[in-house]
Amino acid sequence: MKKALLNIHNRMISLYIIIVFFVLWQLIPYTGLVNPHFLPPLSKVIAETFKLSLGNIVLDIVHSLRRIIIGFFVATAVALPLGFVLAGALPKLGKLLNPLMMFLSQIPPFILFPVFVIIFGIGEGGILTVIFWSALWPILFNTIAGTQMVDPLLIKSARSMGSSQLTIFLKVILPGTLSSIMTGMRAAMTFCFMMLIGAETMGANSGLGWEINMSQRMAVIPRIYLVVMIVAIVGLAINYLFEWFERNTIIWREDAPSGPAD
Amino acid sequence: MTVAGAVIDSLKSGQLIRQTALSLVNVGIGFLLAIFICIPFGLVIGTYYKIFEKSLMPFLRMCEKINPFALFPVFMILFGIGHLEKVMVVLWVSQWPLLFNTIDGVRNLDVTIIKSARSMGARKGNFLLKVIVPMTLPYIFTGVKQSVQLAFFMIIASEMVGANEGLGWQFFSANMAYNVPMMFGIIIYVTVLAIIINVLFTKIEKWFSVWKQSTF
User: Fold this and answer.
1) Which of A61, A116, A212, B198 allows an S-S link to A129, with CB 3.0 to 4.6 Å?
2) Domain ranges within chain B, ordered by starting residue
């Protein structure tokens, strides 16, 4: 019995901190240490859910997710073939373009947003382009790096066994690079989600970022906290989804040896 | 007016330099604060208080995932628009890579070295300074590099959203005035700055991890 309790305690130990955090959030505004107008207690923030209505929240989430999915998938569809071609088929061109790509990837996407708005007009175009742009580079660079890291011996032996170019690509290069691609995609997804909120704050008429911006303009402070919490939850959910996906698709990768056992 | 002309004009009048300096000062203060808070914290959490690590890590990981763009309004409410808010934004975004890399570094310490140092009678204070810190230094500098990039990126963004000075504001006001050559000029200028920072910190990182390669 005691052992079982201790076991539960060990499992829950990380949860305690989170609970303490929320309890403190609820209590601190009442102590007068901070202005309760600027830091509303948790109960007020949660009550705001009903004022905003759940339907609106779901709608905002759907709008944001739609943008991120479109931008991300277009970026993947462009970056993957481009990466394979630049690294595998045309390595000279890849080398030539590398400095340019490095330069472009270093441009902070957020600063590009107004330019995209000028070019593509206010509305979906600008936001989708920003997401596309910020997802493109991590995927592209990781695909190139992954392709270059495939053991040439494997490719040579596959060729000597008489497999065609297509077979080599599908059976040797693709499985070899997939783990690197997934790393890139995960980094890209995290980055895109960050940029999405930024872009929606700057110019949009729907979505989570827009909701934050609107609440800020109307000075509905509990609503800002509420939407920030929702953004955090959506971000965490995306992250866990990706981790799960990664674990379940790349089953052939050997796990890196973990550090000294604790 | 050409892009280069706009940048040169702005450089000549000293406006661009002044705004760059303002932005960089904010980044510098926030970043130094992050270094002074996170590295000792990471070292302590990683070495002596395993229970802390176990209980705090999931919470910290959760905090790390909170979208900084979503937090801008919260920082504005809590700290007001101005230097303090900018410094806090930089501190917030740059603490995570520093902290997690330091903890990672401590965790990946070579156990044999710890054991041999202990068997040679190293005391706790000595142990920390002579064994743990030098061993984790390469990891710490990886974190430093990551977080300085993030910090620079975020300060520009946060100045674009709400500020009355700094590079991001300069860009925003060029945008408001529809001064397109200036906008492109600042984009290139900021990118070059980012690359300079990147190269500089890569050099520093290499310099600090040289001895690591030579020992192994």
Assistant:
1) A116
2) 3-210
Averages of pLDDT over runs of 10 residues in chain B (216 residues) are: 79 83 89 90 78 77 83 85 87 90 83 81 75 82 87 88 83 85 87 89 79 52
Q: Are the beta carbons of B164 and B142 closer than 8 angstroms?
A: no
What torsion, rounded to 10 degrees, do the Cα atoms B74, B78, B81, B86 define?
-80
Cβ atoms of B197 and B147 closer than 8 Å: no
Q: Give the containing element (helix H, strand E) for A122.
A: none
Which residues of chain B have a CB within 8 Å of the CB of A219? none
Would you call B68 and A194 a contact, using CB atoms and an 8 Å cutoff?
yes
Phi, psi of B193 (to 5 degrees): -60, -45
**Exposure letters A215-233 (e unless 16+ CB within 10 A, then b):** bbeeebbbbbbbbbbbbbe
CA A145, CA B167: separation in Å to the nearest integer?
33
Give the Cα separation of A226 and A233 in Å (integer). 11
Q: Is the dihedral of CA B131, B134, B139, B143 positive or negative?
A: positive
d(CA B31, CA B40): 14
* Every domain of chain A and the residues it spans: 41-249
Given an 8 Å threshold on Cβ–Cβ distance, is A197 in contact with B67?
Answer: yes
Q: And the tokens for A201?
A: 């704050």
Distance CA B185, CA B26 (A): 22
What is the Cα–Cα distance from A194 to A212, expressed in whole angstroms? 14
Token pair belonging to B208: 């600090």
The single-letter DSSP state of residue A36 is T
Report yes or no: A106 at the B interface, CB cutoff 8 Å: yes
E strands, A79-120, where? none
Residue among A13, A110, A112 with most chain B CBs within 10 A, to mutate = A110
3-state secondary structure of B48: coil
pLDDT means over runs of 10, chain A (262 residues): 75 79 84 79 82 84 91 92 85 85 85 85 83 91 87 85 83 83 87 87 83 85 88 88 82 51 37
Range A41-249 has CATH code 1.10.3720.10:
yes
Q: How far is the CA of B212 from the CAs of B49, B116, B122, B137, in angstroms? A: 26, 18, 21, 9
Task: Give ipTM to 2 decimals.
Answer: 0.79
Return the closest-CA partner of residue A230 out of A187, A188, A193, A186. A193
Count Cβ atoms within 10 A of the Cβ of residue A146 and give its class: 0-12 exposed, 13-18 middle, 19 or more buried: buried
| CATH homologous superfamily for the domain B3-210 | MetI-like (1.10.3720.10)
